[in-house]
Design goal:
28% helix; homodimer; alpha+beta; three-stranded mixed beta sheet; DNA-binding; Dna Ligase, domain 1; two-stranded antiparallel ribbon
Chain lengths: 145, 145
DNA sequence: CTAGGTGCAAAAGGTTTGCGGTTAA
DNA sequence: TTAACCGCAAACCTTTTGCACCTAG
């Protein structure tokens, strides 16, 4: 996915909050490598380009980005929250061996509702998380022949 | 659901770990009110019947119950982990207003896979969480006529 | 006898907050 | 000018851990 993918249009960032240097660095770190980093990982990457940035500011910036809708939080169990700049509806796959996190896309035209919802309730968000082994980790040992 | 529902058969508890007084109190607290309590809430309920029990023991007991398969952990965002004695495959619905948590059942014969999985990966667990307003909270103000 | 459980207190670890100083609109 | 933001350090809160004692098998 290229960074000019409309899904990731940075101009959205103008809507509602100040796009400061710190927030840009945090967002750039997130767009740079799409590996669902944690706040600490983002902190290290941003610090590389802007040594004065603080961890608290990274948290604050992430919160601003999340509430502006540019970034989504991804939680699995009690592990540190990870962040994702893919704002399209999607799920996540967690590899239990290498701990890689991948986005998984919805089948076209489908909504992930195979559940019986109690009458009258209103759904505003849903999250689907799968755990297992990713392609690499599920593969048998490489053939040496 | 009655407590003699086979899904909740306590005899399963015999398999693999000691069913001590503390673990029984923790499990009973969980079966008693099916409201997905947190560890602290379970601690308070268990303490009521067994004042000497400690929070650390509640955590230890929950861990034992989880790894024996009798109890499942339920996480949403960074909120404290909640615990659920429903061992059937199901999802969770979180009310954003009253914070009630409800189990949601799968539609019969369906699996919750409307996602495109990367080739070759193996799925061992999946979790579906919905957020929104429950029946009560979604209802308009009560009619007074 | 001894492996596993318990309770206590302290530590860990991610995240949030308070506050004085700074900056962008 | 001033509301919003930054960086720092301390606080918070859930969860885990170390350890001495206890107990079931």
């Amino acid at each position: 996915m290229s960074s000019d993918d409309p899904t990731y249009d940075e101009s959205v960032a103008q809507g509602g909050f100040r796009l400061t240097r710190q927030r840009r660095e945090v967002y750039d770190a997130l767009l740079d490598v799409r590996d669902h980093p944690t706040a600490s990982e983002i902190f290290l990457r941003a610090k590389h380009r802007m040594p004065s940035i603080s961890l608290a500011t990274v948290y604050n910036s992430l919160e601003a980005l999340v509430s502006s809708g540019l970034v989504k939080q991804v939680n699995l169990d009690r592990a540190p929250t990870r962040y994702c700049p893919n704002t399209k509806e999607h799920g996540h796959f967690f590899c239990e061996k290498c701990h890689e996190v991948q986005d998984i896309e919805l089948l076209p035209g489908q909504s992930p509702q195979s559940f019986i919802l109690p009458q009258g309730c209103v759904v505003t968000h849903h999250e689907v998380s799968l755990k297992g082994l990713c392609q690499k980790c599920a593969q048998p040992a490489p053939l040496l022949s």
